[in-house]
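Summary of Year 1 activities. Much of the first year was spent building the evaluation harness for sequence design. The harness presents a backbone, in tokenized form, and records the residue chosen at every position. We chose the following record to illustrate the format because it has been used consistently in internal testing since the harness was completed.
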């Protein structure tokens, strides 16, 4: 069976159980609030926010929400993220623990500023 790729974030979120949809919507709103000028899109089949380049991606999995703030965003907050399973440019927030919305806000604001500085240097 072929699964249809979501064309927008609403379709993406709609593909999950209600409890996960609620968390995804709150993550989405948290990112929107921290990056009000960023545009929503689907990239690599994941929700993404773009403002002078990708700010962050996020995605839902069986047991966690993944946040992808590229290596720089994770490097800048490595102490805050230390308690979570993470990779070079990703972090996993377990679904059975409270989502760190304040931390997501800080990371997104950092990435918006970083992207803006890159544009100024060009």
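For this record, the design step produced the sequence shown next.
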């Amino acid at each position: 069976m072929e699964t249809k790729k979501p064309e927008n974030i609403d379709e993406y979120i709609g593909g999950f159980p209600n409890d996960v949809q609620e968390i995804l919507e709150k993550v989405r709103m948290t990112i929107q609030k921290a990056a009000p000028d960023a545009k929503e899109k689907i990239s690599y089949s994941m929700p993404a926010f773009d403002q002078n380049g990708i700010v962050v991606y996020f995605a839902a999995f069986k047991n966690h929400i993944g946040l992808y703030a590229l290596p720089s965003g994770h490097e800048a907050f490595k102490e805050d993220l230390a308690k979570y399973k993470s990779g070079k440019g990703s972090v996993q927030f377990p679904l059975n623990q409270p989502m760190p919305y304040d931390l997501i806000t800080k990371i997104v604001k950092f990435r918006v500023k970083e992207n803006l500085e890159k544009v100024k240097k060009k």
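The two ends are 46 Å apart (CA to CA). Quantitative recovery figures across the full test set are reported in Table 2.
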